[in-house]
C-alpha cells in the first residue's frame, strides 16, 4: 500500500477493501454523511472527496470518480493497484435507451459496451468485452428484488462523448438491446480485469433518451437512495 499518489492522499486514513464510486464527489459526501458511521475523510485532492466509515458494522469507503473513462481510469487504477482495494462498485446516473425503462428504475450493468479506445493499450488480438463480476451482479439483483426496486440487468453503453454529432447514436445502440448510456463503467471493468479485481456498475435512470423526461441535478445528487442502499448492502 502506497502512502499516496498525485491524485489520492489518505494521510494515514484507511481505505476499505470495497469502494463505492459515484461520479459526483458531492454524492460521495452525501453517502458518507447519511449512511456511514465513524466517518474519516481520506481524500480531498482536486476536491475528489473520499471517505471511509462503517455500514452495519462493515468497513466501506466511498469516493468520487469524476466524469468519463479517463477520470475513473486514473482513480480506479490507483485504488486497485496502489491501495489494495479489491472491489469497486460504481453508483451513478444514466440515460435510458429502452421504452420499458422509466425514471428512477435501476440498471445493473452486466456488460459495458463503449466507443472508448481505453482497452487498446493492452493490444489484445480482437475485441475485449468489459463485464462486471458475476457474483456482484447476482448479489445486486437479489438485494434489489428484496427491497422492491425496479431493475433491469444487461448491457450499458459507456460513451466518451456527451454531445454526439451522430444524431442516430441512441437508436443504433438501442437496436442491440443496450439499456442505457453513461460514461465510466467500461474503463472501470477493464481496470478490474487487468488487476484481477472485482467491479460492478449500478445506475439510477436520471433521464430518458427516447422521451422528454429528466431529473434535476439536486435529485441526482441526493435522491438515488435505492441504488446507494443496494451497493452498501452487497459491499464485502
Structure description:
One of its GO terms (cellular component) is cytosol. Catalyzes the reversible phosphorolytic breakdown of the N-glycosidic bond in the beta-(deoxy)ribonucleoside molecules, with the formation of the corresponding free purine bases and pentose-1-phosphate. The record marks 220 as: Important for catalytic activity. It catalyses: uridine + phosphate = alpha-D-ribose 1-phosphate + uracil; a purine D-ribonucleoside + phosphate = a purine nucleobase + alpha-D-ribose 1-phosphate; a purine 2'-deoxy-D-ribonucleoside + phosphate = a purine nucleobase + 2-deoxy-alpha-D-ribose 1-phosphate. InterPro entries: DeoD-type, Nucleoside_phosphorylase_CS, Nucleoside_phosphorylase_d, Nucleoside_phosphorylase_sf. The chain is α/β, with parallel strands linked by helices and 236 residues long. The chain has a single domain, classed as Nucleoside phosphorylase domain (Rossmann fold, 3-Layer(aba) Sandwich). Helices cover 31% and strands 28% of the residues. The protein is built from 7 helices and 10 strands. The protein has helices at 25-35, 69-82, 134-147, 169-175, 185-195, 217-222, 225-234; strands spanning 18-21, 37-43, 50-55, 58-63, 87-96, 106-114, 151-158, 180-182, 198-208, 213-214. Strands 5-8-7-6-9 form a 5-stranded mixed beta barrel, surrounded by 4 helices. Helix 2 packs parallel to helix 5 and helix 3 packs across helix 7. The radius of gyration is 17 Å and the shape is globular. The two termini are 19 Å apart. The model has no long low-confidence stretch (mean pLDDT 96).
Amino acid at each position: 500500500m502506497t502512502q499516496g499518489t498525485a491524485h489520492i492522499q489518505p494521510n494515514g486514513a484507511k481505505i476499505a477493501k470495497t469502494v463505492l464510486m459515484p461520479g459526483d464527489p458531492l454524492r460521495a459526501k452525501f453517502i458518507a454523511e447519511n449512511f456511514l458511521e465513524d466517518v474519516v475523510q481520506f481524500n480531498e485532492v482536486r476536491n475528489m472527496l473520499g471517505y471511509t466509515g462503517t455500514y452495519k458494522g462493515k468497513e466501506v469507503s466511498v469516493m468520487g470518480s469524476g466524469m468519463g473513462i479517463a477520470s475513473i481510469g486514473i482513480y480506479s487504477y490507483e485504488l486497485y493497484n496502489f491501495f489494495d482495494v479489491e472491489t469497486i462498485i460504481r453508483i451513478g446516473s444514466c440515460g435510458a435507451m429502452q421504452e420499458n425503462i422509466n425514471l428512477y428504475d435501476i440498471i445493473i450493468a452486466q456488460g459495458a459496451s463503449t466507443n472508448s479506445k481505453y482497452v487498446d493499450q493492452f493490444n489484445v488480438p480482437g475485441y475485449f468485452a468489459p463485464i462486471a463480476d458475476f457474483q456482484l451482479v447476482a448479489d445486486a439483483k437479489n438485494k434489489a428484488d428484496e427491497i422492491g426496486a425496479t431493475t433491469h440487468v444487461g448491457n450499458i453503453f459507456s460513451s466518451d462523448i456527451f454531445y454526439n454529432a451522430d444524431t442516430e447514436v441512441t437508436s443504433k445502440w438501442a437496436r442491440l438491446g443496450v439499456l442505457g448510456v453513461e460514461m465510466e463503467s467500461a474503463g472501470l471493468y477493464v481496470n478490474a480485469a487487468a488487476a484481477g479485481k472485482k467491479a460492478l456498475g449500478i445506475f439510477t435512470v436520471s433521464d430518458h433518451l427516447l422521451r422528454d423526461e429528466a431529473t434535476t441535478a439536486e435529485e441526482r445528487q441526493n435522491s438515488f437512495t435505492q441504488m446507494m442502499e443496494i451497493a452498501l448492502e452487497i459491499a464485502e
